[in-house]
Amino acid sequence: MVSARPHELRLVLFDMDDTLFDHSLTCRAALEQLRREEKPLASRPLDELWREYLRLLESQSSGIAASPATYANLRAERFRLLGDRCGWTMGPKIARELSARYRDHYQRLRRPVPGAVPFVRRVAARVRVGMVTNNEYREQEEKLEFLGLRDLVDPLVVSARENVAKPDPRIYRIALERGKGRAAETVMVGDSWRNDVLGARSAGIRPVWFNRFGIEPPTRHQVDEFRSYRPTGPAEAVLRHGSSLAGRPFHRTASRPSSRPR
Ligand SMILES: [Mg+2]
Prior knowledge:
This protein has 262 residues and is of the alpha/beta class. The protein folds into two domains: 11-22 and 112-241, Rossmann fold (3-Layer(aba) Sandwich); 23-108. It has helices at 23-37, 39-42, 46-60, 68-85, 92-108, 116-124, 137-147, 159-162, 169-178, 193-202, 232-241, and strands at residues 11-14, 128-133, 153-158, 186-190, 206-210, 224-226. It has a six-stranded parallel β-sheet with strand order 3-2-1-4-5-6, with helices on both faces. It starts with 10 loop residues before the first strand and ends in a 21-residue tail after the last helix. Bound molecules: magnesium ion. Magnesium ion binds at residues 15, 17-19, 190-192, 260.
């Protein structure tokens, strides 16, 4: 159901990972490659390995880190723990080597969320587009370059550079200030209920949930959502006019295929 909104849309903020850039499936593809190369990892089914990896990512992620070196150390630790889960006790050197190899696979196998790039181009032709994302700045900027969207996204607000992470409303206020947008004329599009939906809402911004896997909302809050960028028209209409979930049954949290990794 489409309803009129009182404010004109002037600024659209996007999340990066699993909203525009397909982080989860890139992770999966990189792990699949590593699993082919390392016998101990092959002792576990790929799906199990992937979910465990995403769990480890989630448990490590604060959204803020001091430096790229910190991320490299965290990644090595993830592989040490992942090895543990497969009965493979590895020293720090092997963990670093494995994580570096994973990183190479990840870079090579990167992919956008289907339809995301043309969708952002279409939106950017009409209103200002910005990004609010948790991670290290250069990493996220590089993803934007990979997607061919770097020139279209301004402001690019990244947690590690700002020293504040989603869902803290302060990071959204930074985006509003730099994007010269008022909260009432802005929407935030993202896949994470906590970081993007609740975070944006806490800053007075209307969230639009990119609910790619069609899961039930974790709470009784109503939220505008779309599940695919294709076709672009309906998704764009949700940004402009909203969509009502009124009348839909609500359930407690369903488990997601992916967490909020980075
Ligand atoms: Mg995300």
